[in-house]
Specification:
The chain has ten helices and no strands. It is mostly helical.
């Protein structure tokens, strides 16, 4: 495939995201809630800072979309919205990594046709917000280590905190970021700079209520 301009890639990105959104919306309308979704919907009716087996982000997401309706569509609406956000984040992450609109667009298309991601964009589970904030963290972390902006480190910390509020396995993105910085000599100096400290503290302060 020949390379295309970034403007053209963004146009294709919009249509790809829109088509998959409509497709998921149609499937959503045909399905009753799963057992897990009913469980999380009950959490949304009884908001807390944490629950027995998961942090609270899935409950907060459902609570935000069911303010005016408790239909299946609105219980799952945040999953549809997260899937749109993930598509765009994935596009810009790939664009930053490879500096190629074609690779960025292809990556976004491939993730949308993968089974786990496609289903995760319909059914609301803790994994859906986890993937959104995980991808957001990766994008902000990538920019932070290259630009060394305290603001980028801070927002990466917020993304880390929200990922931890989505699912406990998000701790692995923090562990992975530490391993990466230790392993890569080019970026190792960041461990001893204020930005990384700000990111770490911000993330774990947000997770502290859990």
């Amino acid at each position: 495939m020949q390379d295309i301009t970034l403007k053209t890639a963004k146009t294709y990105l919009f249509f790809i995201t829109f088509i998959f959104f409509i497709f998921r919306l149609i499937i959503n309308a045909q399905m009753e809630l799963t057992v897990d979704e009913s469980y999380y919907w009950d959490w949304a009716k009884n908001l807390s800072m944490s629950y027995l087996d998961h942090p609270p982000m899935v409950a907060y997401s459902i609570a935000a979309t069911t303010l005016f309706s408790d239909s299946e569509l609105f219980v799952r609406l945040s999953a549809l919205l997260y899937s749109v956000g993930i598509s765009y984040l994935f596009f810009y992450l790939a664009l930053n990594l490879f500096n190629s609109p074609v690779i960025a667009l292809s990556s976004t298309f491939l993730i949308n046709i993968s089974l786990l991601f496609f289903v995760g964009g319909i059914i609301i589970t803790p994994d859906t917000p986890l993937v959104f904030f995980w991808t957001l963290f990766l994008l902000l972390f990538f920019k932070a280590i290259h630009q060394d902006s305290i603001n980028l480190w801070f927002f990466a910390g917020i993304a880390l905190g929200f990922a931890l509020l989505s699912k406990y396995t998000a701790i692995f993105i923090f562990v992975s970021s530490v391993i990466f910085l230790v392993w890569e000599k080019k970026f190792r100096h960041h461990i001893f700079k204020p930005g990384f400290f700000v990111m770490s503290v911000t993330g774990f302060i947000l997770f502290l209520p859990v």
